[in-house]
Design goal:
The chain has about 190 residues and is α+β, with helices and mostly antiparallel strands. About 35% of the residues lie in helices and about 20% in strands. It folds into 2 domains: about 5-65, Phosphorylase Kinase, domain 1 (2-Layer Sandwich); about 70-175, Transferase(Phosphotransferase), domain 1, CATH 1.10.510. It comes from Archaeoglobus veneficus (strain DSM 11195 / SNP6).
Amino acid sequence: MDGGAYRGRHSTVFRVGDRAIKRFKPGLEVNFRKEVYFLEKLQPYGFVPRLYGYDDRNLEIEMEFIEGQYIRDIDMGSEEGRKIVERCFEICYTLDRLGIQKEEMHRPDRHIIVRNGKPYFIDFERAHETSKPSNVTQFAVYVAKRLGVDFDDIKEVLGKYKLTYAEKDFEEILRKLGFRTPRPTVKD
């Protein structure tokens, strides 16, 4: 549907064919620049909309329009839903390793769109670079709430991950939430 408009607090997104034009409100140049910066930086990873161009003067970004389901509408208990959530965790881990804090991962309901089983992260206008990102831990709290997992069951491993950002601690978070099975140990 061409011409559809999606109004947010800081911008309006217009759909034109398979593209989206995101226009920021006057005075929000910093938000505009952040969005452009992170979309450019994350293009090689394939989990953000394709960036076609931007207009500094009009605070507009032209990008791929991602049509699909919001993460909030995904059944996390289904086999496909579980794969999508695991992929979202992998993306969050990538963001953490890159030192990028997205800022919406504790409530990502409208910041992750799933198209054909593939999650896309959108809206990077509030993102920033930091040595202590918390995308994985924020998303873990969100998923735990959705699945009815008691926070006390994951609190310790989340704290450990925040200290190390180690892959083994990341994998332990997924196991605690029921997304990975422990690898069998080999006995001598």
